User: What shape does this take?
Amino acid sequence: MQKRNIFLSGLLAFTMASCATIEDSNMDSQSMNAHGKLPASARTLDMFKPGSEVCYDREVMGETFVVDAHNHFRPFGGAAKSMDEINSYLLDTGVLFVNVFGIGQSLPVDSTCEYYLDCIGTPARPSMKNDFVNASNYLDSDPEGTVMTMSMTFPDLANPENVAAQIAVMDEEFPGMFKWMGEVNLVKQALFGNHHSAAPQSAIADWSEFMTILRDRDIPISIHSDLGSDDQPMKYAYLMDEVLRLYPDNKIVWVHMGLSKELPSINPDTHITKMQDYLDRYPNLMLDITWRVIFDNYFQEPDMRAKYAAFFEYNSDRILPGTDFVASHKKTYEVYKNEVLANSDIFKDLSNTAFRNIALGQNYFDIAGMDYTAPDVCK
Ligand SMILES: [Zn+2]
Assistant: This one.
């Protein structure tokens, strides 16, 4: 409790020096190193192997994250990018570790739609297809230079009775390959036009069989659960309350900190206080701070940015970075690069310790149980 009071008063006192409104173009130049390029080639997997003595120079090697803990390798519908092409995007931006998500709700194969908001009324449903495709592509392309963590995206959280059996199918077809679950949707208001609705609270108790499997295997689960909308900011908070109450020992990642396009202007003090309360009560909870929408609405305006930077600093071992990229065939390298830059921008304001934990991946290695270590930042 005392720690928390120090934090809250620290929030008030916290001021930042460099938080101008940022356009993509000048954000590029701010994130480039002295040579004017994204310093991707300065980063190698060897630097992250235990025992490596190389220190990380933020000025030379850049302040963008090396971990993308939220990347959808499958689009909602239509053609996807090849895994080789995505891997080249990762290497060119210096992202060395990535979670390979499918997509929580995909459009029917006979639909011509590629994005759910373009085809309101078409059902978007969870499916095992995209996880099979990701695993097969991974085996076929055997990407080099990066570490990819396969993730199970198929669970239907409103109808969880088949999830354990589906995990058994993945075990049979791709033994040992899937080490993460998510992004799965508990409530995603953006999909309400596509036959998705908030999962009933009563269904959460029925997750126990698959949550036990995840716990036994030490597999994290990334859950999309909107807090609410601007007119009712905490409308759906009861759903994550129930998840955390029932499964406090699972490694749960709350994506986007509950924020969304439908909640672009919650009071940051209200939001931060709410998130701090969850973090204090549930030590296994982590927050995913990905998505361009969050950067645009919360991490640009200097006062708000300072509050969130202080919040991340205080909880620097509880935060995961990434893009929330969706690998539709229409996207280019420029799109991915700009998402890396936007989603990394606030890390410029963090101390070396917090930068190492979040951007250099120590939190990710810890939660995923990986045999990598973030390098120390050079003094
Ligand atoms: Zn996502």
Q: What stands out?
A: The first strand starts at residue 67 and ends at 72. Residues 268-281 form the longest helix (14 residues). The mean pLDDT is 88. Strands lie at 67-72, 97-101, 147-152, 178-187, 221-225, 252-255, 285-288, 319-320, 325-326.
